[in-house]
Amino acid sequence: VVSESNSLVGGSNSDQVSLTGVTALTNGNYAVRSAAWNNGIVALNAGAVTWGIGTVGITGQVSAQNSLVGTATNDQLGSGDVEILDNGRYLVTDPRYNNRNGRVLIATPTPNLTGDVLFNDSIGSPLEFTASSIVAILASGTSVTLQASNDITLNSDITVNSNVGGAFKLQAGRNINLNADLTTGNGDFTAVAGDTGMVADDRKPGIPTITLGAGASINAGTGTVILAANGGNFVNNSGSAAPITANRWLVYSSAPPANLAEGIIAPFKHYAQNFVDGVTPDYATTGNWNLYSIAPVLSVTPAAQTIGYATHYSNVTPLLSGFIGGDSSATAGISGTPLFTIPGSSGYATLGTHDVAYDRGLASSLGYTFADNAASSGELTVVLPQAAPELSIDTLASILSGTNTSMLAYTVHTGVEFDTQNSSLVSTADCGVQMPQDAPASACQ
């Protein structure tokens, strides 16, 4: 069955692809003339001339990405002759262009890719390759690596009609723009923007970015997709919230996008994770992931408390702030028990107001770290204990006999404290309040 997956086809009725002929070129390739091709609905019969590789052919719809095309109604590009020049170039006459004023075009075909292209190849010179030649290599099960110290742009669909497609890898010193559909035939696909292996003098300034253009998609079948913007951004302009089809995928970038709709949301994410080529984090060996290099720190503000002297600050749940990417204390995978210190204090804090500082104890499965909120102070107030009740002779007797252990140490209004642990009376200042035995004498003054 003829289709765009195995043939060069038109995109609308009456396109009549190859109506005006096919011209063989001296290097074994060819040019297909389609003078009746319609350039959308605004330029009917605009015409097109499409270059094809003799050994592998060309598939898909005729478009401006793979052909010379007319831009106005009745341009009928391809209605004139095609003359063969040297080095595989060809001349196209276009007699009906611009109300029959005519023009002549010289076409320099995009070269075929024959193998990997590395950073040191053709430094300072732009390179362009046909999608069909990339497809031919990948379909054979052979991997393809394309490196550029500046940008890499995919403008034509790459469709590998094979179940054992080779791995496809793009490495750019700055940006990668994916403006067309990519189907790898179950091969892995990796795209790295901001690759550190680039030639520095050949790279233009700018934040590394991987961009999925309008309508673009990636289908790796049973393969794995890795998109890594080192120290930069991933932008999803495809118009789809799920533009990637794969066994699993990982997207690395510096931080969650300010507008989450411009990204792609995975079921799992982790912070403080840089991309390392060939290494997958132990926690991310299954599932789809957003991995961010940003290392967010949550500020821990201890809860304010008022306690009596010689009692302990309670580990009340502190206030956490500094969440990013729509996270909260309920979704950030926080575990552990917070431990606090009272700076400058050893043992019990003295009467008055004190700072409480977070010390350790909390963890986050998303990669957050924790630090004390240094701007917060005076969270702890230490006061004298409440006055002890007057005790009757019967209550004293029950304590002496050991049948009443509700109070181990207390002071009655006479200023005499009974220590039930040591079964002895001790002299104390007449505070009229319950005091711990290690309280300083000045506490009653």
Characterization of this structure:
The chain is mainly beta and 445 residues long. Helices cover 5% and strands 31% of the residues. It contains three helices and 35 strands. It has helices spanning 97-100, 131-139, 393-401; strands at residues 8-9, 21-24, 30-34, 48-52, 60-61, 67-69, 82-84, 90-94, 103-107, 144-148, 152-154, 158-159, 168-172, 176-178, 182-183, 189-193, 209-212, 218-219, 224-229, 233-236, 244-245, 248-253, 268-270, 289-292, 297-301, 305-308, 319-321, 334-341, 352-354, 357-364, 369-372, 380-383, 409-411, 416-419, 424-427. The strands form ten sheets. It has a seven-stranded parallel β-sheet with strand order 10-13-16-19-22-24-23, covered by helices on one side. A four-stranded antiparallel β-sheet has the order 2-3-4-6, with no helix packed on it. Strands 11-14-17-20 form a four-stranded parallel β-sheet, with no helix packed on it. Strand 2 and strand 3 (30-34) form a beta hairpin. The longest helix is centred in the first third of the chain and has 9 residues, at 131-139. The chain is rod-shaped. Mean pLDDT is 84; it is low at 407-445.
Q: Could you tell me the number of beta strands?
A: 35
Number of H/I helices: 3
Helix content: under 10%
Strand content: 25-35%
- Enumerate the spans where pLDDT stays under 50 for 5 or more consecutive residues: 407-445
Mean pLDDT across all amino acids: 84
User: Which sheet architecture does the biggest sheet show?
Assistant: 7 strands, parallel
Overall outline: rod-shaped
State the end-to-end CA separation: 102 Å
Cα-based radius of gyration, to the nearest Å: 38 Å
Structural class: mainly beta
Strand order of the largest sheet: 10-13-16-19-22-24-23
